[in-house]
Amino acid sequence: MPFEPGQVISRRYLRGSWVTWVQPMRVISDDETGLLLWHPVGSDIARLVDVDGNTPHDIAVDRMRDPKLTLQSWTDYDVLVLMRPNVAHAVWWFFQEGVFAGWYVNLEAPYARRPDSVDTTDHVLDIVATPQRQWEWKDADEFDEHICNLLYFDSAAAAAIQAEGHRLIKLIEAGEFPFDGTHTGFRPDPDWPTLRLTGTPDFPSRRPA
């Protein structure tokens, strides 16, 4: 069943038995073009942080000491996120004070749909593109460090992730959908509030068995 426009769901990253990221998102649309989600500055996020202050960007999840999901606030950019079924990426549109500021391609596993969330696994490697379609890789060193860690990806899976990135780069350079100007003029309803994660900040960091 599709999600309803206006419904608030969670976008979650999973890594092995861990939940590493939770982000409440407002559904804009859910149809044949994909699942389109909105998350404004000032909304809640929960990210995995260990007792030393490390996040999964700092060290591999299996090396973190007593990690817990920690409630934080989203900063810098309002984001519109398009997740299409059966593809290994999501595309983010960045906005600052209502002005389109560029794209972010998050390479990730095809998502699984739950009753109140969409779950995926982050593939670490990302692409950032300006409104003029100048692009660069993001987190390439971090990606290389995780190759052959079986909690992440082996060399064959890493090659497939990189190939998906190169495929998206060709679309960026050509100005093809979704990098053709679609959604760059998006404006949220001014009455929409910032988004809050329900429950207490002590979110479960482990996936249910």
Provide a short characterization of the protein structure.
With 209 residues, the protein is mainly beta. The protein has helices spanning 140-146, 155-174, and strands spanning 8-15, 18-31, 34-39, 44-49, 68-73, 78-83, 89-96, 99-108, 112-113, 117-120, 122-129, 135-138.
Topology overview:
Blueprint lengths: L7 E8 L2 E14 L2 E6 L4 E6 L18 E6 L4 E6 L5 E8 L2 E10 L3 E2 L3 E4 L1 E8 L5 E4 L1 H7 L8 H20 L35
Parallel strand pairs: 1-10
Antiparallel strand pairs: 1-2, 2-3, 2-4, 3-6, 4-5, 6-7, 7-8, 8-11, 9-10, 11-12
The counted number of beta strands is: 12
Outline, from the CA principal axes? globular
What distance lies between the first and last C-alpha atoms, to the nearest angstrom?
24 Å
Give the mean pLDDT: 94
For the record, the CATH class is Mainly Beta
Largest sheet: 12 strands, mixed
Give the second-level CATH assignment, the architecture: Beta Barrel
Protein structure class: mainly beta
Low-confidence stretches: none
Fraction of residues in β-strands: 35-45%
What are its keywords?
209 residues, 12-stranded mixed β-sheet, mainly beta, single chain, FomD barrel-like fold
Describe the structure in your own words.
Strands 1, 2, 3, 4, 5, 6, 7, 8, 9, 10, 11 and 12 form a twelve-stranded mixed beta sheet that branches. The chain starts with 7 loop residues before the first strand and ends in a 35-residue tail after the last helix. It has two helices and twelve strands. The chain is mostly beta strands. The chain has helices spanning 140-146, 155-174, and strands spanning 8-15, 18-31, 34-39, 44-49, 68-73, 78-83, 89-96, 99-108, 112-113, 117-120, 122-129, 135-138. The protein is globular. It has a single domain (8-174), classed as FomD barrel-like fold (Beta Barrel).
